[in-house]
Specification:
about 40% strand; 14 strands; about 200 residues; 6-stranded antiparallel β-barrel; Thrombin, subunit H; 8-stranded antiparallel beta sheet; 1 helix; 2 domains
Length: about 200
């Protein structure tokens, strides 16, 4: 039986959400690794995802559920400025931990590496990124401590559409996925051991 591993991260951050104009990768070759989950019928962005390999995007499970909790297996992903549309399907779902992996053709996109040791240093800077419509926003913070099971990252502010986006460490590695809305000034992100779920497929 395949299983997932999740961690909790507590972060203190700036109170504002800034319009993010820089790429989360220093390499400017290829399309942005942060993509939008897109409703073609309404022309709206409803969530964010992170390209982690030529085949896979990581996002939040609630982004692919309808109001009754049913999983929508077919998802349209769009690059930030409509350069590329990708039709993707759900490959892996964790409802309890709100992380989903989508499969599609992402060879034209830059990739964000997943942090595999799941260890952050106290005071390490973190950055939460996500789309609000077609604009990319970010909120930054610093790592404080771990808890069990969930990730609590403190006062990061999320705008509608930022769910499913990446939480990055100083090395621009994926350490979490924007998951929860703010509740009592708390922000929640999730991370799973994708190596344990997808194995060598993750590097395809």
């Amino acid at each position: 039986m395949k299983y997932i591993v999740s961690l909790i991260v507590l972060v203190t951050v700036s109170a504002s959400v800034l319009y993010y104009t820089n790429s989360p990768k220093k390499n400017n070759t290829g399309l942005s690794p942060v993509v939008r989950l897109y409703h073609e019928e309404t022309g709206t962005t409803y969530c964010t995802g992170t390209v982690v390999s030529n085949k896979y995007v990581v996002t939040a499970t609630h982004c692919v559920q309808n109001k009754f909790g049913k999983i929508n297996n077919d998802v349209v992903l769009m690059s930030g400025k409509f350069e590329k549309k990708v039709n993707a399907k759900v490959r892996y779902v964790s409802i309890d931990q709100d992380v989903t992996v989508l499969i599609g053709n992402f060879t034209e996109f830059r990739k964000i590496k997943i942090n595999t040791n799941h260890q952050l240093k106290r005071g390490e800077k973190l950055l939460s990124i996500g789309y609000r419509n077609s604009k990319l926003y970010a909120s930054d913070g610093t790592f404080k401590t771990y808890f069990d099971f969930l990730i609590n990252t403190g006062d990061i502010n999320l705008l509608p559409g930022m769910s499913g986006g990446p939480l990055l460490n100083e090395a621009y590695e994926l350490v979490g996925v924007n998951s929860g809305t703010q509740m009592e000034n708390q922000y929640f992100a999730q991370i799973i051991n994708l190596e344990g779920v997808l194995g060598d497929e993750l590097h395809d």
